[in-house]
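Let us work through a complete example step by step.
Step 1: write down the sequence.
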Amino acid sequence: MVFNRKKEEENLQQSFGKLKDATFDFDSIGKYFRKKQHPDAFQIISDKTCDDLDFEELFMFLDRTQSKVGQQYLYNKLRVIPENHQEVASHEALLTRLINEPAYRVAIQKQLKKLDKRESYYIPALFQDEHLQPPKWFFLIRILSFSSLLSLVLIPFLPQMLFFWSFIILINFALHYRNKRNLYAYLAPIPQLLIMNSVARELFKDHSLKKLNPNLASSIKDINKVRNRMSLFKLEANLGGDAVAIFWAFVDIIKIVFLLEPLLLFGVLKQLDTKRKQIEEVYSFIGLTDTLISVASLRHGLTHYCQPEVHGSDKKISAREVYHPLIPECVTNNIEINGKSILLTGSNMSGKTSFIRTIGINAITAQTINTCFARQFSLPKMRVFSAIRISDDLMNDRSYYFQEVLTIKEMIDKSHSETPNIYLLDEIFKGTNTIERISAGKAILSSLNQNNHIVFVSTHDIELADLLKDEYELFHFSEIVNHQSIDFDFKLKDGKLKNRNAIRILQINEYPDEIIKEAIKISADLDKASLHVKPNLSISGQ
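Step 2: predict the structure and record it as tokens.
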């Protein structure tokens, strides 16, 4: 036993700062988030933005929690930007202690691991879902239970009561097994609630953790008041195939004779229904504790990170040595924004989209877990919207272009608010023709750039960069095309891209000479034409 405890402690210490070796069931992980109300949230990150930023992969990288409760709580925390950033930044002293005091951290982790079973995913159902209600004829359960007890007492005095009692037992037998399906719905969450409450009671003894919710003691005490009744579920969950068969049969007979299961089940559910707030408070205390350990582990394992500077609503973003956390050995970049938005040019695979995602991810983690993947990162408190990964909606007969139109229309609607937003766009309107793409793109990007909103957009259209040079800072990514290779440095550079290498890349990949020659000739003719013909970029109604 001592050896096992030491082994567990060694594993916890060795895993600190490392990726979790586990499978991720996002249906279960997201249960708490999907059903939780967020009336005071600054922003709930949309499914669309999550898809654009590869949120599930990001979560698997960030998650270092020990419990299923902590995992669900962390997921919710990353999806919800709170109104008050000071709440996010208020736990730095505890995070420092968790990083610097391994023995202290491991003692907490050992408690949290008691909630690592899959059944813990169902705890939120106890305070988020409607509980089963007793049927209208439930009064008959009480009558039958009392009648069974009374008949059993009278049998020694009135032997004929044996026949009456046998009849009642048959009815009770049917009702007992009919109720089993109701009981099974709570065999997972209620025993885990008992464990969670016990873990919370132990952790709450620590002075530093007590600061997370100084009033938690009353919630722990209230849940303990129904502990004895809930022990039925603990017994039911723990016995099973490993228990002594004779003892199990005896227990089951007692429950059948007196209909104990339905009586206790609906009694417990009635009491739990009045303690939803207390259960959620204990759940949140456990979840926040585990989330902080996860953030501490994340920071410990990074090459570098910073705590963000979240300022007012000025149109300013500053980042130094910022990087994408999911890209191994990612090249870092610097960016400074003051009063303008950012337009990126560059060829495919040069790093434009990854850089836009880098900014989006850091904007979210800055405002949710007070951690950025950079040496320095500052930004205004802002909402995050994106149109990076667009696909056809074949089920609703919507083309790629129409899907993009709807997504960007939502951004335009959001831009009327004075609340600062950051818009992340990749290759705007690439599903339509060049003239209309450039003209519509210019008008929309100018509109989104109003007020204190900041836009990060990539494009292949050099004309768009020329049209927006007074409103957007121009940057580019480029590659070096050698005789038989293409090298990317993934470094952000000032100005718009001047070199075109698409045809050269075709040549490197041994496209037929006649195709290369024709492409070069057509490209030269189009360049000459563009010098003499100024396209009409106005958008007229029809």
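Step 3: interpret the result. The chain has 25 helices and 14 strands.
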